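Let's study today's protein:

:::
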Amino acid sequence: MSRVRFSFVLCTLLLASCSSLPAFGPSADDIQASSMPTFVVSDSLLPYQLIDVSGNIMPVLKQESRQFPNNFIKQQFLTSDEVIGPSDELIIKFWEMSREGLFSYNDNDDSAFTLTVSNSGDINPPYVGNIHVSGLTKKQIRKKLLAMYRGKAIDPEVNIHVKKVVGRGVSVLGDVKRPGRVDIPANGLRLLDVMAMTGGVIGPTWENVLTIKRKNISFPIRYDYVLDRDINNVVLLPGDVVQVERTPRKFSVYGAVSKTGNFAVNKPVVKLSDLLATSGGLNDNLAEARSVFIFRENKYTKENSPTKVYRLNFERPDAFILASKFMLSEGDIVFVATADASEFNKFIRTFISPSLSLSSQVKKLGAW
């Protein structure tokens, strides 16, 4: 068989096998043909709208402005309603109208005593014996003491000061540098103060989610939202639990890029140019530069609204400027379509090149 005839037969066979070449996802024409200029519901196809990105058409990413619920935000530092517990130290000061009363010493008409609350929750002020104070506020303890001293002291007056609190704390768990229990005063501390006491979060702030648990209520929020908004620096109370979880954001890239998969980009605001650079950029041998698609689900519009599909043409002279301004949202999927010519290149690399190499080796063997 002549060389020309052999090549013709070989090419015919190989061209017939082109339909079995591997695919890289839908073509640009398929995506454009299936897009919907207006919202249409179809049982066979999820609705989406195709939008070409330009200097005049650039999607505005709606930034989430998350904050704690009102019951956390409105919580103020405790004052008169702080609750006394075991091992707390109280300074109790007594006054009487006469210097001849129970607490008159050295011509003074007042006396002060430092009392420690026992493990059973009691104190032992003079002349009245044990009084159970655990779980009571200062106001309630004062009222109780006045009732007990009535008839024993001369028109008594009582003032109570909390000198020291013990056993009140906030538990900080998870991805912080020094997890554990933080002792706080009876009136409370703010969230950022407690985070500072534990050494702060591990990793970038925007990758960490804080969840405050208070009794039967819990609420998660990203740490950078706490840093950026004073209103989220809420007051923590004894018994609160702060759970810190590091959750790197990942963005998906598929199609004709150097590396496909899910990638974490170490920036607070991620642009399309950042993600493409992380994935190694467009594959020169495969990519259709005019057809870089970003699929974005509409999170802030009415139910069943179509997904937005943005297309960026990298043959534009301003393409890299547009890519550096296109902000990605977590959950976006970037897909780079495969150029039609790349199918022929794959054909050459997959079938023709090995055959030519084999033919060359046979010729060398025949020359021996």
